[in-house]
C-alpha cells in the first residue's frame, strides 16, 4: 500500500473515533425526561394496576411497561431505597401487594409531609412486576 492510502485510512479512522466519542459523550450527558412534563399513558388506582399485573403479566407489560402511568392510592409505607432514593408504597386497604413508587433525590422535597394513610396521586415510568408493581422516577401529582 502506498503512504497516501495509509494516511487517508488513518485519518478516516481518527475521524470515526472522534465522531463516535462525541456521540457517546452526548448520550451519556443527555438529561433525563422530566416525568412531570409527560402526559400519562394510563390513569388508574394502585389496586387496579396491581390486579392487572396479577391477572396477566405479559398483557400488562404490553400495555404499561416503560409507559408513563398515573396511579392514585393510599400510602402504606415510606421506605429508604438504594442510592438515596425513597420508595413510597401504595396499596389498597388490606392488600398485601401494591405499587412501589421510587422518588429520586430531586423529587423528595415534594413527599416530605407524606405519612401512611395519605391518599396521593403519583406519576412515574412503569418497570413491571417484582412482587409489587414498580414505578421509577416518580413525581407527586396530588398530595
Describe this structure in words.
With 143 residues, the protein is an alpha/beta fold. The chain is built from 3 helices and 6 strands, in the order αβααβββββ. A 5-stranded mixed β-barrel has the order 2-3-4-6-5. Strand 3 and strand 4 form a beta hairpin. The longest helix is centred in the N-terminal third of the chain and has 27 residues, at 3-29. The model has no long low-confidence stretch (mean pLDDT 86).
Which helices and strands appear, and what pairs or packs with what?
Blueprint: H1 3-29, E1 42-45, H2 46-55, H3 57-64, E2 68-80, E3 86-91, E4 99-103, E5 119-130, E6 132-142
Parallel strand pairs: 1-2, 4-6
Antiparallel strand pairs: 2-3, 2-5, 3-4, 5-6
Structure described in brief:
This protein is α/β, with parallel strands linked by helices and 143 residues long. Helix content is 31%, strand content 36%.
**Alpha carbon gap, first and last residue:** 71 Å
Proportion of beta-strand residues: 35-45%
Give the strand order, joined by hyphens, for the main sheet.
2-3-4-6-5
- Please work out how many helical segments DSSP would assign: 3
Percent in helix: 25-40%
Q: Could you say which overall geometry the principal axes of the C-alpha atoms support?
A: elongated
* Strand runs, count: 6
Q: Roughly what is the average pLDDT, rounded to an integer? A: 86
SS-based class: alpha/beta
Specify the biggest β-sheet: 5 strands, mixed, barrel
Order of helices and strands: HEHHEEEEE
Amino acid at each position: 500500500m502506498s503512504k497516501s492510502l495509509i494516511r487517508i485510512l488513518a485519518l478516516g479512522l481518527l475521524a470515526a473515533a472522534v465522531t463516535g466519542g462525541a456521540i457517546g459523550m452526548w448520550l451519556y450527558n443527555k438529561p433525563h425526561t422530566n416525568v412531570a412534563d409527560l402526559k400519562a399513558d394510563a390513569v388508574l388506582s394502585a389496586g387496579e394496576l396491581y390486579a392487572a399485573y396479577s391477572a396477566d403479566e405479559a398483557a400488562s407489560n404490553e400495555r404499561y411497561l416503560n409507559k408513563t402511568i398515573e396511579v392514585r392510592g393510599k400510602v402504606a409505607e415510606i421506605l429508604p431505597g438504594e442510592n438515596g432514593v425513597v420508595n413510597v408504597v401504595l396499596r389498597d386497604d388490606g392488600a398485601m401487594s401494591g405499587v412501589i413508587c421510587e422518588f429520586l433525590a430531586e423529587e423528595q422535597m415534594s413527599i416530605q409531609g407524606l405519612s401512611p394513610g395519605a391518599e396521593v396521586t403519583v406519576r412515574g415510568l412503569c418497570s413491571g412486576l417484582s412482587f409489587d408493581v414498580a414505578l421509577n422516577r416518580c413525581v407527586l401529582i396530588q398530595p
